[in-house]
Description:
By secondary structure, the chain is of the alpha/beta class.
Amino acid sequence: xxxxxxxxxxxxxxLSLKEKIGQxxxxxxxxxxxVESFKEQVRNGEIGSILMSVGATAxxxxxxxxxxxxxxxxxxxxxxxxxxGIPILFGRDVIHGHRTVFPIPLAMTASxxxxxxxxxxxxxxxxxxxxxxxxxxxxxxxxxxxxRWGRIIEGTGEDPYLGSVFAKAAVKxxxxxxxxxxxxxxxxxxxxxxxGASEGGRDYNRTEISDYTxxxxxxxxxxxxxxxxxxxxxxxxxxxxxxxVTSSKYYLTDILRDRLGFDGFVVSxxxxxxxxxxxxxxxxxxxxxxxxxxxxxxxxxxxxxYLNELENLVKSGRVSTDTIDNAVRRVLKVKILKGLFENPYxxxxxxxxxxxxxxxxELAAESVVLLKNNGVLPLDKSANVGLVGPFVHERRxxxxxxxxxxxxxxxxxxxxxxxxxxxxxxxxxxxTGLSWDSSLKWMYNTDVTVLCLGESWTATGEFRSQAEVxxxxxxxxxxEKARSTGKKVVGVLFCGRPVAMQGIAENxxxxxxxxxxxxxxxxxxxxxxxGDTVPCGRMPMTVIRESTHIPMYYNVTSSGRxxxxxxxxxxGECYIDSLATPYYPxxxxxxxxxxxxxxxxxxxxEIALNELKEGxxxxxSIDIKNDGEFDGKETVQLYIHDKLxxxxxxxxxxxxxxxxxxxxxxxxxxxxxxxFDDLGFYLPNxxxxxxxxxxxxxxxxxxxxxxxxxVLIK
Length: 714
Ligand code: GLC
């Protein structure tokens, strides 16, 4: 037994059953007349953790600033006035920023830059830990192929490998090497499992996912988070094929703990335990508590079902003391790992927020995806610019949903950042209404119109799903009006999700997807528009033509008939009334410069399976030249296609990428190594397998690349 386990046993041995159950209870911050009774609960050891927000959809509502003094007072009561003296664990949804707001996670993923993502979460951790926060409910690792789902913005898109890279970067950035460090906070991999497959993109809806699909698409990012040392996991609201995750031993114990090796604690989602009754697998709260706890769900968020029911369940013999003790052990271990017993109170420290804002701007800039450019960008600073649209003077929506502590008034607008850089005239027309018509005359004195469009942050996030994922009709009319003037038209889209592009992208001479890119996105956009920064973002998910094409994703298996819409094979046959190819494919993004790829080289044509298992790898390289007029970063992507296997394998699977800076005119060799862990897949039972046969290896600038070699596993 190691020292932490000894410490856990020593604490546990002194706890009453009530006090043990208190450690499994998380309640939200009390307000008004609740405060005094809440403090009494703390004194009685009933509160193991506090959710530092109010309401079931904290990401949609104003939460108010963190009152450190108040949380320190609650902690003092727990430590000094309760019998056990166990500190409270404070958790808050710090999803993509605290005082400094970084791009939404889907935008961060578009940077394909794990170093910047890790640095972002390190900054976020520093700021949050300075506000009494010990624990954040992020990263959200729900793979999703459905931009109708409002929570698509919180995840990492449609690819398991990209999700795995993000998972590791976020967990490392938040927890560091030692989560007990004062500047570090605990991460939470959520929502285990399959939430991103909610049918119809309708939040909280049911899912239908086979084990084969779970193992190869939805689980890998969680496996990566566990390998990175994540200390908590949040269970998902949804059911998988009729089994609510919240009460599933198969998902929460057999897979998460026994197969993935997770050794922290599992917290429910908000009221998810009591909702088992609505899901029809429990008759009452007692049943809910029994099912969830026995499944391996350790901490109950907000509904007090554990607090109210577990004591009687133990006394009636329905729940064993061992089951309670094991859950409490996991919670106590994480509290010890967080250093709560040594440092229970928040002591505010100075930090350089200007450095954090620089990091936010750098990540925002690397997240912006240049979708189209017929040469109009970058603009000359002397250009006379007309800024038009509802996002010209917008602040709040640039920060996106799940932003509890940033301040919109500190977020520069596009008008302010363009005006600051321009040496020509800048005219702005906010909104999309008639003001445009009355001020049309200024059009004749401008060189280019920049349309600042997008979607409100309130159209994204939890419980904010949309049937249509397109720009609003008035914005589409504005685009058409701008097009009719015969002037060059540049579009900047501040969206949380990639919107359907049919009938939109065609009307622009250049188009930037700036996402809800955080506090500094307007500054990043201005740098990109004037060429001080060269865009390098890549799509973390497919950009569809029409909402009716959803779901459409790149890592799809081949059909038996000669038709593969995504890859353009007889695409006109997929629907008789619509062209069902992606508008922009996964991994797509342009630059101001041009990268030309040479031939793929590999140091060997084949490796025996047993040698592969022993660690032998294919060493692959490719020469790439920057043939353009700008220095620029290229995200070189490596995909595989397992042509013949015991289960159908995707036509393309991203297995590696490297983001490389090329000076203009420079040629560089980019190297990859792929081996056993890259060339296999998971069987329905979760077993990882690599099978003999040919594997096609592709390298390119997005998933449509046809530049390939073939290697053999013999
Ligand atoms: C919400 C979300 C979850 C969040 C939690 C606490 O319902 O599903 O992601 O962390 O409740 O706010």
